[in-house]
Design brief:
heterodimer; A: about 575 residues; alpha/beta; Rossmann fold; five-stranded parallel beta sheet; extended; B: about 675 residues; three-stranded antiparallel beta sheet; about 60% helix; ORC2-domain-containing protein (chain A); Origin recognition complex subunit (chain B)
Chain lengths: ~575, ~675
């Protein structure tokens, strides 16, 4: 706008003399303040100023606007290129007669933040983008401040600034970076109390983490992992031995506690299998030395249950106990609840010579957490003829039990920190894969996909190939763009990189329509119904995922990373399946 | 074995010699454990007996009422009923004690009335159908010969029409025909946990069957009967005929238990005030559970006899020959023994002689220990008695604020009562007591003095005498007989002026006037009260001793909070976090401690999980695994070793362990990121 005005002025200057004369007449009519003005600064800029003053109704606001616009011409042009928002800003503030006061108010920090909150709640899931946006604005603000500094430097050498009382240096409206938002310091505060730290780390916008990704070849698979660990020697072996020895000194105490009708629960960092195993041995010897077994051929029986083992159920636990308590000829009920009643009743009616010791490793394992299990376990543990020795690994395991259950369990807790690795409890490789979302629970990686595809008809295989190829092509195209950008100037690249970081969530994969047309073209299917049928098979095996992008169009994608996808596409292309 | 789910332990065949050696070790390590545990069992059996009696007493009143209610509703069998007889059992907020309570109730109902008792809890009844199935299953399996009944039932459908569904209440009707039960008591243990709609349905259904099966409903209520009624619709309420039963609340029971066990008059082991306060606070703050209190007490007894060798001296019949030398040696190491020796040493030469003997001759220590244990037990018993007396006086005088007996006891035991405002205030009130309240006070006091003599100082050099409460009572009665007026007698201290006189002189004048206004009986009464007051004051002075200063107090008191606290209130999270944040605390190794003089700094030699955990603590809500890995590699990796796989294996294991402990979870927000779940200390 400013430039057009100036152009017009220019045109007027070298335009017809009649017009010029007219202007002079005008000048004379209002010569009171502008005469001196003109005399002072005979430069073109001042004349512009003077002209615009009379072109528009008089107001200080307008005046400053024009000044600003006039001044802004030089430095702002570079910034326009850099930041979209800031250009908007300048454009919005041009002195073309709009009620800028209102507009400024609109842009007040509060409204802005309100709007942002509103958007965030509306969008919900897309808080990730939001996070990035926020980061963007933060960097923008920092850069802005620098830009502002440059601006002032450029302005200073201009002596002809006509109206010094206006705060012209700040530009229009709210000065950048000086809003209600406090300047964010890049380093996080230290020494916060835990709850403050929680809120600090979970504040909207969040912390910035890098976009680095872990290349798949770093992570070990099962074979490599076992190879690596088998040769590994822990430095703390002797100390761990000592800890174990320390705990085993308490065995007699635990036996005493069990005899007095309490149950024992061990907690602390490190696998406690070694302790329970040793304790079982100790208890076995202790019991063998006591009356019912001493001198006879009978041996004491101790039930050991590994709660961490996948698929451990209460029924198995009860059956094991029943096999000890109940003579083998009795028929056991099938339902766990009935079985529990049966066992308890049997124990009450014909109590064994000593309480049956039950050693339960990892009572807090996910398999024993299901709703009814803890209460049934508690009923079992409450029986005087059962001695429960259990271990718990997670941090908050006491939350599993309410007051009633706790009373039934009658636990005495002992800290049994061992620092021993959880070798049997955790499948390390699988857990890490799941943690990183790498084909953990999917069909089982590339081989799994191959397995499924082999059992599907030719058309399905072709469709999957098309999808994989298309997705790969899109990925590569994105990357190609990225590479091109590297050649161009820095700021642009940054922007693209940011945009790319957002992309993975929404813009991944192939558009449903596109894929359908491709499939029809290649005679994979003839109708949409057929297409859907093929897709359903993939969905069932979790071989594809469908997402909606920002525009609401459906996108299909193969849930693999690029490296894996490449391998997969190779296999598909070479008809390996 | 470790990957098997369940198995029965089999000892490895090779270990043959290990057990023998271990047994020798044990006897060396724990001298005379057996004997000590025997004392423990004797003592605890006494306490358990008291606990049982107290619990039964507490329950019996309401249980009796409920049983009467059930049998009354069962007796009017043939009359048509329009509403289900319903007992609202307000059992209080301590849900932990509800289960045992209703079980006891069930036993009593079954034995005392001819009723079937069916206990239903919310967990097993998510909907009406399951509820009915459970109801029928529980009702019909009550009878003997379950199998025969099953056979008969399965064969019946062919004979009598269609097979019944397993939630048809006809089952109960049929069953009742065979088993003469007067009524079927259906008990809803936790009525609050049931869906209101389900309860309404149940009530409607049972009501519709009421003409064929005489149901009685019992609702366990943790809140209040009003809020229970609010949840039901008017129609259902009309179908119920309610009666309310208030169960003794668990804090009252705990209070009673406390007086019966810890503050009992013939305890040989004295549980210290610190531990008791802790136990009671835990009751108040967290659990509200009678069982838990008993367990805590039991564990205190267990710990004392298991861990402390001198506890063997609590055996009355112990002879010197039975002792091992270790026991005396252990006694000589007690802090109170040392204090005792030091005290003696500062006294005259005779005491110094005693010191020498105590240090050298075991026999002397044994004798003195036995003597002082017995006397201390007596003194402690007096202390308990005094606490009881004080509580009873306050109760009889209806003083406010009501202070619980346990609190008075704890203050007495921590030697904090003698000069306390509580005692002073009580004694002042006693002085002013009018005769109507005094009668009540005297009767409680005479009860208490029957239990145990109340000793007091008779004044200068006259020695001690036991309080003759019944004598005072007689005197009081005779004074009372002379009194004709209906107004109660007053003491001279009981100044009842209508207006407050401002000046001291005025008050004095008033007092003397008041004295003059006292009648002859009043005067006699006033003297009596003053006598009692003085005797009581002296009694408290003698009884309220500081048990800490008693020699050998470790033998007959137990006041350690250490194992008790950890065993009942564990801090698993703290322990795990500590293990990982400063592994040195547990491992006590040279390598992990104080790197560069800085505590808990990251060191390459720390366990991998500890390193990752400490980096985890520093990171934000989202953690980039790649960056974590490079940081880990920088700390724990071998520079000279080109092979990264070992470091990676450690890293992966550490990540997996953190996930297993519940510190990490996967996130989809960014690729290769994990989300933090726990903030240390939060």
């Amino acid at each position: 706008m400013v430039s057009t005005k100036r152009r017009r002025d220019d045109a007027e200057e070298d335009g017809t003399p009649r017009k010029l004369r007219a202007r002079i007449v005008d000048d004379d009519a209002t010569a009171t303040d502008s005469d001196a003005f003109e005399a002072q600064t005979p430069s073109r800029r001042a004349r512009n100023q003077y002209l615009t003053d009379f072109g528009t109704p008089k107001s200080i606001l307008k005046k400053t606007g024009t000044i600003n616009g006039a001044i802004g011409t030089t430095p702002r042009s570079t910034r326009k290129l850099l930041f979209e928002t800031s250009t908007n800003y300048v454009n919005g503030d041009t002195p073309n007669g709009t009620p800028t006061l209102i507009r400024n108010a609109d842009r007040s920090a509060r409204k802005k933040s309100n709007r942002r909150i509103l958007e965030r709640t509306l969008n919900g899931e897309e808080s990730d983008d939001e996070v990035l946006d926020e980061e963007e604005t933060l960097t923008e603000q920092i850069l802005e401040e620098e830009g502002g500094a440059v601006e002032t430097v450029e302005e200073i050498p201009q002596p002809e600034v006509p109206v010094p009382e206006t705060p012209s240096k700040r530009g229009r409206g709210r000065p950048k970076g000086s809003g209600k938002k406090k300047p964010k310091s890049p380093t996080p505060p230290t020494e916060l109390p835990p709850h403050e730290e929680y809120f600090w780390q979970n504040r909207p916008g969040g912390l910035k983490t890098s976009n680095n990704t872990l290349s798949a070849q770093y992570l070990l698979n099962h074979d490599e992992y076992f190879q690596a660990t088998s040769s590994y020697q822990d430095r703390h072996e002797p100390e761990m031995e000592f800890l174990l020895e320390l705990h085993s000194r308490a065995f007699d105490q635990w036996i005493f506690e069990l005899e007095e009708g309490f149950n024992v629960c061990l907690y602390g960092y490190g696998s406690k299998r070694a302790i329970t195993r040793k304790f079982a041995t100790h208890l076995y010897q202790h019991l063998s030395g006591a009356p019912p077994y001493k001198g006879s051929k009978k041996t004491p029986k101790i039930a050991v249950i590994n709660g961490y083992a996948a698929g451990t159920t209460l029924k198995e636990l009860l059956t094991t106990i029943a096999s000890i308590a109940v003579p083998p000829t009795t028929k056991l009920p099938n339902q766990p609840a009935v079985l529990l009643d049966f066992v308890l009743e049997y124990l009450s009616s014909s109590p064994p010579p000593h309480p049956i010791p039950v050693i339960l490793n990892s009572i807090d394992s996910p398999y024993l957490r299901k709703s009814s299990t803890p209460s049934m376990l508690a009923r079992l543990a409450a029986h005087p003829s059962i001695n429960l020795i259990c271990t718990a690994d997670t941090l908050n395991f006491p939350l599993l039990w309410d007051v009633g259950l706790k009373t039934q369990y009658k636990f005495l807790f002992h800290d049994a920190t061992t620092f021993a690795p959880y070798d049997a409890e955790i499948d390390v490789v699988e857990t890490v894969n799941e943690l990183l979302g790498r084909s953990g629970r999917r069909v089982g990686g590339r081989d799994g996909v191959g397995f499924v595809l082999r059992s599907l008809p030719e058309n399905a295989r072709s469709l999957y190939r098309i999808l994989a190829m298309e997705q790969l092509a899109l990925d590569i195209m994105d990357q190609g763009l990225d590479d091109d950008d590297e050649a161009t100037e820095m700021p642009k690249k940054k922007k693209v990189a940011q945009a790319k970081a957002v992309a993975p969530e929404s813009n991944q994969g192939v558009e449903y329509r596109v894929l359908y047309h491709k499939a029809v073209q290649e005679f994979v299917c003839s109708s949409e119904v057929g297409f859907r049928t093929l897709l359903k098979e993939f969905h069932d095996h979790q071989m594809i995922e469908s997402r909606k992008d920002a525009m609401g169009t459906e996108r299909l994608l193969v849930p693999f990373r690029q490296e894996e996808l490449e391998g997969l596409a190779e296999d598909l292309a070479s008809d390996a399946f | 074995m470790e990957h098997e789910r369940c198995y029965v332990y089999q000892p490895p065949e090779t270990e043959e010699r290990a057990p023998k050696r271990q047994r020798v070790d044990k006897s060396l390590f724990q001298p005379q454990l057996k004997e000590r545990l025997q004392i423990y069992r004797d003592l605890w059996a006494e306490q358990e007996q008291r606990i049982q009696t107290t619990l039964e007493e507490a329950d019996s009143a309401t249980q009796e009422q409920i049983v009467d209610f059930v049998s009354a509703s069962g007796s009017s069998l043939d009359e048509p009923k329009f509403a289900i007889p319903t007992g609202l059992v307000v059992a209080g907020p301590s849900i932990a004690s509800h289960g045992p309570y209703f079980e006891r109730l069930g036993r009593k109902i079954r034995s005392d009335t001819e009723s079937a008792y069916i206990l239903l809890s919310s967990g097993e009844c998510p909907n009406l159908k399951t509820l009915l199935k459970n109801l029928i299953k529980k009702a019909t399996s009550r009878i003997e010969d379950e199998d025969d009944d099953d056979l008969e039932q399965s064969s019946r459908p062919s004979r009598h029409g269609p097979k019944l569904l397993n939630y048809d209440l006809r089952h109960i009707q049929d069953w009742r025909k065979k088993n003469r039960v007067s009524s079927v008591v259906v008990t809803i243990q936790d009525s609050e946990a049931f869906d209101a709609g389900l309860l309404i349905d149940l009530i409607d259904l049972l009501h519709s069957w009421l003409d064929r099966i005489p149901f009685v409903l019992l609702f366990g209520i943790a809140t209040s009967a009003d809020s229970f009624e609010d949840r039901l619709a008017g129609q259902s309420l009309r179908n119920l005929e309610g009666e309310r039963f208030d169960v003794t609340q668990s804090d009252d029971i705990v209070e009673k238990l406390f007086s019966a066990t810890v503050a009992s008059l013939d305890n040989r082991l004295f549980i210290g005030p610190q531990l008791c306060r802790r136990m009671l606070d835990r009751q108040k703050d967290y659990v509200q559970n009678v069982q838990d209190f008993c367990d805590g007490l039991k564990y205190a007894y267990m710990s004392h006899f298991y861990a402390s060798v001198p506890s063997i001296f609590l055996n009355h019949k112990l002879r010197f020959e039975d002792l091992q030398a270790d026991a005396i040696e252990a006694v000589r190491n007690l802090p109170s023994f040392r204090r005792h020796i030091e005290n003696l040493h500062e006294q005259d030469s005779f005491s110094r002689q005693l010191v020498r003997e105590l240090l050298e001759a075991d026999q002397v220590v044994f004798k003195e220990l036995q003597y002082s244990t017995t006397s201390a037990q007596e003194e402690l018993s007096v202390l308990n008695h005094a606490a009881q007396v004080l509580f009873s006086i306050r109760e009889a005088l209806q003083m406010t604020p009501r202070v619980k007996a346990s609190i008075i006891w704890i203050r007495a035991a921590s030697a904090d009562l003698l000069d306390s405002p509580l005692l002073r205030e009580t004694m002042l009130t006693l002085k002013k007591t009018p005769s109507d309240k005094f009668a009540k006070l005297l009767s409680t006091l005479s009860n208490l003095s029957d239990k145990k003599d109340m000793m007091y100082d008779k004044g200068s050099k006259q020695g001690r005498d036991s309080m003759d409460v019944s004598g005072i009572k007689k005197e009081f009665d005779s004074i009372l007989k002379q009194q004709d007026a209906s107004t109660p007698l007053r003491t001279e201290h009981d100044v009842r002026s209508d207006s407050v006189r401002a000046t001291v002189v005025a008050q004095k004048v008033l007092l003397s006037k008041h004295k003059a206004a006292l009648s002859k009986q009043d005067q006699a009464y006033s003297d009596l009260v003053t006598r009692l007051h003085n005797q009581l004051e002296s009694f408290f002075k003698i009884a309220l001793i500081d048990l800490q200063i008693l020699p050998y107090s470790e033998v007959f008191t137990y006041d350690l909070k250490s194992p008790h606290l950890e065993v009942f209130q564990p801090k698993p999270r703290f322990s795990v976090e500590r293990a990982m944040a400063s592994p040195h605390d547990y491992l006590n190794c040279d390598c992990c401690s104080a790197v560069d003089g800085k505590e808990s700094a990251l060191g390459a030699r720390q366990p991998a999980t500890a390193i990752v955990y400490q980096m985890y603590l520093e990171s934000g809500a989202l953690v980039n695994v790649t960056d974590l890995w490079s940081a880990f590699k920088a700390i724990a990796g071998d520079e000279d070793d080109g092979d990264e796989s070992k470091t990676m294996a450690l890293f992966q294991r550490a990540l997996a362990e953190l996930r297993y402990l519940g510190l990490l979870r996967p996130t989809k927000k960014k690729t290769d990121h994990v989300a933090k779940v726990m903030w240390k200390g939060l």
